[in-house]
Amino acid sequence: MTMKSAWLAGAMSLALCTPGWAQSDAVLSTGSAWISGLSYHLEDLDPSDGVTPWVRFNQVGAYAGYYQPNDAQHVVLSNDVFSQPIGSVTSQSGELAAGGSGTAYTAYSQLKASTVQDLNGVGAQAGEWLYVDSTGVVSGYGSSVDDSGVPSPLVGDHAWTLSPNTVLVIDGTTQVQAHVDLSQLTQGSLVQHMAGGQYGVQLTMLAFTAVRLSADGADGEPFGDSAEAFASARQILDASGLSLDPDYLLSDSFRNSFSVRLSNASMGELSGQLFMSVGTAATLEATTVPEPSSWALMGLGLGLMAWRTKGRR
């Protein structure tokens, strides 16, 4: 099975398990991001010091949500990131979903042709967004609470305290997938105007994950470790037909097991931060003149959640 066919099979399987999914509607793009199998353990750097390794996690918060024009929702929940259920949130259209359990986080998005086929791009400038959506989950241990008393997953909070001569290790698996197919956009005013040469469009799908451990050293300089994954796909459609941006694929995927480590080699306790995130972002923009766009910056800055992810393969 090819990467593309495997991805489409996986996307269909997930769609069939998602309530409210319209199987008859043509799909222009799909994106998904997973962090699964989350666990942590400690390593003793000096068994002779008489200290049994320990870690103390502070209050925990998880922030899940989605954004779609005329429909946005986010929820903040407070459960044990590593063991207790967190919950999920799904858009009214069924195209967007995000959530997870204590050991896994998932974000999924699907863009249907019917959602964008009647958009009006006449007069749009190159790079102007005609449509955008996003999903994501952000979590982290933190000492702050919001006005309602719910722990807030702010990266800057002291999330954990680690015993002397101890290494904190977080393990898991990350997977991202992105796919676009503008050939499925065959009717509606958007295509009609493109056929007249008034503008073109490009569709981009981004999926990303991040797990980060960090702390401030004795000299005040931050240090730590992270595991990040990134997948992206893009396609262009205009009066001349379909084309592919040379820097992008129609289908992209990445899967990897990770082990994020932070070592406290001192004789004193160490406090630091934990940040975990998964997300997707889709954009449809006018492209009267082919040029790179700032879609990724927008996708990470929608204000839906405190994403501070820089994807890297």
What does this structure look like?
This protein has 313 residues and is mainly beta. The protein has helices at 3-16, 113-116, 189-195, 295-300, and strands at residues 27-44, 55-57, 60-68, 71-77, 87-90, 96-101, 104-112, 129-141, 160-162, 166-180, 201-216, 222-238, 241-243, 251-264, 270-286. Strands 2, 3, 4, 8, 9, 11, 12, 13 and 15 form a nine-stranded antiparallel beta sheet that branches. Strands 5-6-7-1-10-14 form a six-stranded antiparallel beta sheet.
In short:
The protein is mostly beta strands. It contains 4 helices and 15 strands.
Record keyword descriptors for this entry.
single chain, 313 residues, mainly beta, nine-stranded antiparallel sheet, six-stranded antiparallel sheet, 4 helices, 49% strand, elongated, disordered N terminus
